[in-house]
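User: My notes are a mess, but here's the protein and zinc ion's SMILES. Can you give me a structure?
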Amino acid sequence: MTDRIYYTEPSCRSFQGTVTRIGEHNGRPTVVLDRTAFYPTSGGQPFDTGRLGTVSVIETLDEDEEIVHVVDTPMSVGVVVPGEIDWTRRFDHMQQHTGQHVLSAAFDRLFDNRTTSFHMGTEASTIDLAREVAQSDLERAVEEANRVIWEDREVSIRFVSADEAARLPLRKEPVRGGTLRLIEIKAKNNSRAIVYPRQIAMYLAKHMTEASLPEIGRQFGGKHHTTVLHSVEKIEETRKQDKDLNRLLNKLTEQLGG
Ligand SMILES: [Zn+2]
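Assistant: No problem, the inputs look usable. Here's the predicted complex:
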């Protein structure tokens, strides 16, 4: 069984592995390692190419529990090799694949139009939709997808059981049981990691400057003055109960106030 490094570390481009098995595929030598960052063809994303030491990896296959590297030169079992992925190729695949999901989600959200298939090519990638689309709707979906991309949202990996997955609003029904790996494209504005620091910053702006609520709202990217007021009140309340926050605010006020 190959340890799939890309599964948990998708940005890993170089690694070390030991050859555990050798073989042949369509007349070319193959190599199985104990661990690999090479992504095999699956789920619509093409395979990785690259190098294992001085040997070129021409193709990567997913064979049951193992990842099989098709190489240009035979290797020996037991050899430890540095692996290096052709990152230009892989990063392009990652961008296209994620982009496809963002675009598909836009069609789904705006027009309830599902993506039935996806093809990734070297020159162009295409998606097939369940229904015909008017030119104006097409433009709206492109705009919506670009809006999401410009938000620079966090893309994260989450592991869930089949039971948990059944309770989630997934884009696609999972085809297998066991632990599932989900890719989540997080909505930016309601993440606490963003909202809480922003509330603190608004609170400090209110207390340390002469700026009015609408002025602060404008400074924070066009927020309504009631949002600013709510944030100020929220932090006011929280600091009464949260000693750490209170200490932090005292320190910040002192340092910023000079
Ligand atoms: Zn996908």
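Residues 87-111 form the longest helix (25 residues).
User: Great, I'll file this with my notes.
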